[in-house]
Amino acid sequence: MRTKNTEIPCVICDPSGADPGDYCDRHRDELHRLEHQYETLFRLQRTSRGKDHESYHLFFQAECEPCGRIMVAETDPENLAVLVLVSGELNLDAAIEDYKPLGIAKTYGDALRQRIQSEIIHTWYGNARACVDVFRLTPEPPTHWDVDPRGDQEEADDSDSPPPPQEGNPSVH
Hints:
This protein has two domains: about 1-40, no CATH class; about 40-135, no CATH class. Helix content is about 25%, strand content about 25%. It is built from four helices and five strands. A hairpin with a 2-residue loop joins strand 3 and strand 4 (about 80-85). The longest helix is centred in the C-terminal third of the chain and has 17 residues, at about 110-125.
């Protein structure tokens, strides 16, 4: 008599009779445990939200300092542009070794994509299409500029400003 674990085709226990993604109860439970373990690999913290944009800090595991930033902009009601800036120290192409015994090639980039997809893209509009661009940053802190509003005195001193309108008949188009 066959045991419960071998009755169902499994890519690990009996690869010859199984289709990709078929797992016995024991390996399906292991995959489920891994999914829960790695769903918190990346954490997002919203830093700003506007009518058609949001920004987030990206944290790796339990780190206190962010390893990246995510900016989301609505390009039209059903399309999002997502810009991901990650630290150059974070290797998104590295494999998550715990998945290899189950025959799954999953990377840190796959985990980040899944997190962005579930927490940002699908929560914005549910079925929105998104274009995601990922850029790597150097570890130096960003340069920050505070720009004061332009005052009346600066406008008078600005040589690039157009000349004041001529006195006389205004042009009508």
